[in-house]
Amino acid sequence: MFPGIDTGTFAGPPAATAVFTTVLTEGPVSRVALARRLGLSSAAVTKAARPLIDLGYLHELAATERSGPGAGRPASPLAVRAEREFFLGVKITADEVIGVVCDLRAQVHASARRPLDDPDIDAVLTEIDRLADDLLDAFPGDRTRVRRLGLALSGDIDRGIGLVRYSPFLHWRDVPLGRLASQRTGLTVTVENDVKALTAAEHWFGEGVGAESFALVTVGTGIGCGLVVNGRLVSGSYGVAGEIGHLTVDATGPDCHCGGRGCVESIAGTDAIVAQARDRTGRPDLTINEAVALARGGHEQVRGIFARAGGAIGCGIAAVANLVGPTRIVVSGEGLAAYDLFDSHIRASFERQAFGAAARCPLSIRPLPFEEWARAAAAVSIQSLVVP
Ligand SMILES: [Zn+2]
């Protein structure tokens, strides 16, 4: 059967998956266009769509187009019933959980936040459960249609089994978060690395729809990167593909929390910038906001720290362009609040290190609030309908 709303599993045939994914991500599509796009016969499209229509996931719009001059009966495009099912998405940060309720097309219907005082797994599960209650209370729709929860956090995540292998900011290793959160909330839970979740959301519902290849780079506490190659999100065999934060850009550089040396993140992550700024200014309590203010005020040594950080980030982005050749690269993240301090250094270093035509790859810069990350977690949960 198709999307196991009751079983939480998907066991549909590939044609049904392809039809559902295409209609979901690209909007109303006629059967003729679907058949052409997917290389299926019209009869196969009709057969694949039937159970999706019966289960209420797809519906036929009123006939508005003809397949050609003098062609027979007009085509009725297939569209997603966005309110067939709703999804919770939660982004976990070091000190807060941020959540949203989305429909099937990843439109946000409610949002909420809760502070996180304790990184202990049990305390985090309690806050996730409370946040889920808050979200359902705020959600104006039919809460019995909420069956799934997507969780996104930074670190080394095995999405397939819902395992957090390593979370540097929560200090977790090998935590089966998917199973534990499912037991606590009673929902079907998906867990994904936050940057990969954001990339997946862009791929299905944002700038990446239809793109063969693109990359998303995030700048902040961590330096992350999500990659889409040949239309697919790349996870890599061990789930850590695209970790540009841990590319070495200076083999004699500072030690990194990952155990490596001279990683992009050890130079350009927020903690690294703060540590360097404290060292240069002799102010052991300096915050990132104070470091930004000093740099903007013209403090040469602190400006130099941001310049070096921008250079390291640009090297990382250039490595992505050289290895993968994406059509475009989106740069985002909470560190972008100080983008004026990084911008020219990122671009200069990218242009210097990108090989040949790879330097033509446009960098687009877009700030994203944490609710967008939560929406991305929900998008991964939506994907789990058809991509186990
Ligand atoms: Zn590292």
UniProtKB/TrEMBL annotation:
Pfam families: ROK. PROSITE patterns: ROK (PS01125). It comes from the Bacteria. SUPFAM superfamilies: Actin-like ATPase domain, Winged helix' DNA-binding domain. Gene3D superfamilies: 3.30.420.40, Winged helix-like DNA-binding domain superfamily/Winged helix DNA-binding domain. InterPro entries: ATPase_NBD, ROK, ROK_cs, WH-like_DNA-bd_sf, WH_DNA-bd_sf. Belongs to the ROK (NagC/XylR) family. This is ROK family protein. It comes from Micromonospora trifolii.
